[in-house]
Amino acid sequence: MGYLERGKPMILNERDIIRRLLKKGDLVVTPILYPEKQIGSTSIDLRLGTEFKVGRVTRYTHLEPRQKREKIKSDVTKYTEDIHLAPMEPFVLHPNEFALGATLEYIKLPNDLAARLEGRSTWGRLGLQIHSTAGFVDPGFEGVLTFELQNVGKVPIPLYAGIRVAQICFYSCNESAVPYTEKEGAKYAHTTMAMGSLFFDDYEYEIIRNQGKRRRLK
Amino acid sequence: MEKILSLELLEKIIRMELFLERASLESQEPDLRVINVYKSVVESIKKSLQYPLRKFRDDYGDMEEYEYRSCMKRLMDAFNSLDLVVHAHLSFIHGDWTLPETYTFIKGLFRPEDEISIVLSDTYMFEEANLSEFFESQLYIPYKGGDERKTTLFLPKIEVMNPLNWTILVHEMGHTMKKPLEDIFTHTEIGEMLVSDEGRRILDSWTEEICSDLISLKILGPAYLSSFITFVLLLGSQPGLENITTSHPDPRFRINIMKDVLEKNSIDLPFAQESLFQEYGDIVNFYDHIFEERCRFEQRYMIDEVKEEPMFPLVYQRFRDLIYEKVEEITPEEICYSDIEKDKTHNLVGMIKDKIPISSYREIDQKKVIDTLDKVEKDLDSIAKKDAISKKMKRILAMMKEEPNSFSEIINAGWLYKCEIVYPKMTQVFFVDPIDSPKAFSDAVEEYKKEIVKLDELLRKSIETAHIHGIFGKR
């Protein structure tokens, strides 16, 4: 990159972002519906997609990770309900409720850019949080980003697909040797919808499952 | 031809597996046992394909005709088992509901304000009906559904996730847009040949089918033709392909007329889609051959009266001539041909290859933007140029705008991707690369499944996002 000194980490400004968006095979954020409103001085506003996942009451006592992978996957599915909004249909997030959502935009980071997802203060003032723990995006990530939506305010918040609820800023870094999609165990790559937890695919749980098996064999 | 047919058949089997997987994720223990029975049947159907697929491989060499026929028969048996037995009994399990994207797709192409319902059907058929009328005619009690037409479209359950085949729903919607067609038969040979109500009803029904094809072709261009060909390619193994029915003219005629119309309107079919015609032609010739043989066999036992009866082919021949002649007249003028740009479609195919949704497209003079950015950067230190910088930045941002792609562009890019990328890739996987064990076969199926799921997801996401883009991208 001519305009970035190698080894000097920095946050990209609007001009850097535009240059990277125009470079073929580099940064992708699509669609950008309204660039004048969406591209800020160091960020791009992101919109809410149409798919949500909410928790539901089940008759299960708990999630049992020592079961077979397919069974635990099916159990996790039973704990969540998929809600798919039609365009212009509201999704109301009530106080103290939690839901997973996703960006309308598909994002592809090159190997020398990391990103950080942040909320917009417009919504933060109403108590809407768009992520609780996972705001960092690794270089090489591709897919939609999952929101961990939470209403910590006192009023129900009507959300519509297409509204700008978050922003993303980009950090240049020296090129990663193992970008996200090539990393072993990259579970959330190339997604086009809100993804529920795949914690059972973590290698630790594989060990836990195997230990459980051995114990049963004894 | 056998390769594309085999791949299409495998795709339907995979779609059935996916439907059952989604059903099992939502089900509890006793229901799971029922779903497992379905799964094991589908597994057997899949296994039954291993034999013919092995024989169709490039390294197998030439086959005797009887051997070839036997393999084709196995394909037909597999599809008929999947369609006429398994699919027809999906009502026993609770599965998907129609996706909101399907509604977005259909309403976006037609009338967003209309009350259209899309029902998932157990029969592997795309249909359109007025539900109220249907119940009025079927119930054992008096029922009046009201005057308002309640359009209901029927989508086969295994096509619920497949936007490439939602195109056939567009044909079904075409039936609700009937234009008065009576005039085209007045003072014609055929009009005078068929004076009975029944005869006229058949003519109207055939014409309506052609008219709906032409509506879909105008709206969706080559994508409709491609999905129609692959649809009838599979159904060809069932009785009917070689025959005209009282409700539908034969698919070969429908395909030819659509191809003619596209050519007349200078709408190119990319080579990859053109080859589907070849596939279709080959398979029709194959079935025709079988049909002719059957006829020859049956003729030996035919009695004279039966031989004299068919006046039907003559009427049908006149009908076809008339339609070729009056095709402009029966094509609704109020619908315009979709604008499908070749270069743009190819760029969209490139995006699908990169796994990027194709909801929008940015046509931009890249050099102009970069030059303006350079100028802005040069001027940054000068306070006097602050206003000019701000104006230039506004111009640059305006140039960065993406335009939403039409549903027709999305579906056409999807079909082109399938013809250009998926078919060749999977032909390599199933018919060239070594498959020397059942495990290798199931790995190959798994790879195909991933391709199908990814393409479905990208297209569905693109349709929905393009629609939202249309709403919020307006200033």
Keywords:
heterodimer, A: about 220 residues, alpha+beta, Deoxyuridine 5'-Triphosphate Nucleotidohydrolase, Chain A, five-stranded antiparallel beta sheet, 15 strands, about 30% strand, globular, B: about 475 residues, mainly alpha, three-stranded mixed beta sheet, two-stranded antiparallel ribbon, 20 helices, about 65% helix
Description:
The complex is a heterodimer of chains A (218) and B (475). By secondary structure, chain A is of the alpha+beta class. Chain A has one domain (10-217): Deoxyuridine triphosphatase (dUTPase) (Deoxyuridine 5'-Triphosphate Nucleotidohydrolase, Chain A), CATH 2.70.40.10. Chain A has five helices and 15 strands. In chain A, strands 1, 3, 9, 11 and 15 form a five-stranded antiparallel beta sheet that branches. Chain A has a five-stranded antiparallel beta sheet with strand order 5-4-7-13-10. Chain A has a three-stranded antiparallel beta sheet with strand order 2-8-12, with no helix packed on it. The longest helix of chain A has 15 residues, at 203-217. Chain B is mainly alpha-helical and 475 residues long. Among the domains of chain B are: 162-330, no CATH class; 339-362 and 401-475, no CATH class. Chain B has 20 helices and five strands. Chain B has helices at 2-25, 29-48, 50-55, 65-86, 100-109, 131-138, 163-174, 189-193, 197-220, 222-235, 251-264, 271-299, 304-308, 312-325, 327-330, 342-353, 366-379, 386-399, 407-431, 438-472, and strands at 116-121, 127-130, 151-156, 360-361, 403-404. In chain B, the strands form two sheets. Chain B has a three-stranded mixed beta sheet. A two-stranded antiparallel ribbon of chain B has the order 4-5. The longest helix of chain B is centred in the C-terminal third of the chain and has 35 residues, at 438-472. Chains A and B meet through helix 1 and helix 3 of A and helix 5, helix 17, helix 18 and helix 20 of B.
